[in-house]
Design a protein that fits this description.
mainly alpha; globular
């Protein structure tokens, strides 16, 4: 009986592992594209965003519009590809935390008192996406995985050739 349950559980783990990679892929594609679009919008038409940043009291608004726009645009592309995923999520997460603290300050500080306000704020899905990829990686369907396999193979080959 326990052997059967163990076998079922192990199959379940394999299935959910495959599904997790599909989930990460779809999440990266969807929200990576949203980052690309919002970043491109800031870069293509910075005027209104500069005014918005000035109204929020963000220092150096012109510089920050281009910095955020470029971070979102390139970060979104990297997320879609699954390239340098865990690294690119750091500046993206910082951008989303700053967005929360400036544009959605009340929602950010209502995390424990009004969860609905927190999750309905614009930065929320972007932040959840980048934190998910930061903590769980890009998944099976990513350039990161291919690169990781290549590096492991090179290290293994190097050890076999130089350790004997």
């Amino acid at each position: 009986m326990l052997t059967k349950l163990k076998a079922i559980y192990e199959k379940w783990l394999v299935c959910t592992g495959v599904l997790a990679s599909f989930f990460l892929l779809l999440t990266r594609i969807n929200w990576g594209w949203q980052f690309v679009v919002t970043g491109k919008g800031k870069l293509a038409n910075p005027g209104p965003v500069i005014e918005f940043f000035q109204g929020l009291g963000i220092p150096f608004p012109i510089f920050n519009v281009y910095l955020v726009g470029l971070t979102e645009f390139l970060g979104g592309l990297f997320l879609i590809l699954g390239l340098g995923s865990r690294l690119i999520t750091i500046p993206l997460a910082i951008t989303m935390f700053v967005a929360y603290l400036t544009a959605d300050r009340a929602a950010f500080f209502s995390f424990f008192t009004d969860t609905d306000a927190f999750v309905k704020a614009t930065p929320f899905p972007f932040l959840i996406t980048v934190l998910t990829v930061l903590f769980f990686g890009a998944g099976f369907f990513s350039i990161d995985r291919l690169f990781g396999r290549f590096v492991k193979r090179r290290i293994s080959d190097h050890c076999e050739n130089s350790c004997h």
